[in-house]
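TL;DR need structure tokens for one chain.
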Amino acid sequence: MRRLPAEPPPSLVAYELEPGKVLFVQTLAVPQVDGLSPAEREVLGLLLNDHDSASIAAARRTSPRTVANQIASIFRKLGVQSRAELAAKLLEGREERAAR
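>> reply
TL;DR here they are.
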């Protein structure tokens, strides 16, 4: 069994799902998106790391309904209708920023 560090590296956020069960999410994958609340940015990061709504709710210790509302708000603010459109839009934005 691998020993976990006392503190995760700065590029990771640790969520304790239950005693002894920790979920690490890489924060570098979350692009800067204007207009999102801190909670929505956190949910976006989990979405981009391929977590489903149930695991997002568990990680954030909130209800699945709250997560569904936050995802709907992210979609509305970014003008997308699905997770696939969200990923495509964020990738498109990353490529545009890299070209500058």
